[in-house]
């Protein structure tokens, strides 16, 4: 009888501890998701440029490349140009600015060696299937729920570091509506 009571008490305590751990885990996931949503919805400013909806997509193990996406709005009276992007050598060998465009009946991706124009008074969207950044020679997978910090250099505005929220492998945007949050 004592053994049964002790065993039942032990199970009750373990169940309570497990429920508490599950609750803490759910809280952590919710906080993490909220942080990620806030992170993905953040607006970064450098001079007259406003950068928002910054995200990347989770990569598979041993995948050699990863993408970077965001929207940049030039609120100024002069054109600017994104001339380079980089991340830490622990993340990737280098980054390139790319576009995807139709060449006859074939969609082709190519590097933009002269950078990407950001016309005055306009918004340029870097997105899957269009303009985007490529992290070449990934050193480690891009993990959903984490972020990767990149450095963007503009011809006139200068250089800014921004985090890219890493979403699902099929993420389409950097906002909560773009499936960048996860959890309950």
Automatic annotation (TrEMBL):
Stretch forming the signal peptide: 1-21
Keyword Signal among UniProt keywords: yes
Top-level taxonomic group: Bacteria
Keywords for this protein: Signal
Keyword RNA-binding appears in the UniProt entry: no
InterPro entries associated with the record: LpqE-like, Lxx211020-like, PCuAC_sf
Gene3D superfamilies, alphabetized: PCu(A)C copper chaperone (2.60.40.1890)
Protein name: Copper chaperone PCu(A)C
Organism: Alloyangia mangrovi
Lineage: Bacteria, Pseudomonadati, Pseudomonadota, Alphaproteobacteria, Rhodobacterales
């Amino acid at each position: 009888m004592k053994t049964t009571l002790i065993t039942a008490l032990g199970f009750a305590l373990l169940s309570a501890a497990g429920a508490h751990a599950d609750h803490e885990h759910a809280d952590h996931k919710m906080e993490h998701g909220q942080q990620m949503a806030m992170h993905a919805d953040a607006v970064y400013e450098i001079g007259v440029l406003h950068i928002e909806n910054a995200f990347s997509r989770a990569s598979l193990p041993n995948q050699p490349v990863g993408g970077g996406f965001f929207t940049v709005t030039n609120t100024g009276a002069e054109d600017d140009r994104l001339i380079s992007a980089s991340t830490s050598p622990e993340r990737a060998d280098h980054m390139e600015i790319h576009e995807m465009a139709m060449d006859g009946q074939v969609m082709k991706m190519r590097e933009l060696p002269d950078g990407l124009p950001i016309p005055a008074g306009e918004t340029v969207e870097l997105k899957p299937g269009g303009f985007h950044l490529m992290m070449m020679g990934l050193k480690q997978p891009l993990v959903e729920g984490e972020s990767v910090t990149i450095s963007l250099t503009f011809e006139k505005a200068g250089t800014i570091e921004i985090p890219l929220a890493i979403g699902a492998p099929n993420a389409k945007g950097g906002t909560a509506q773009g499936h960048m949050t996860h959890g309950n």
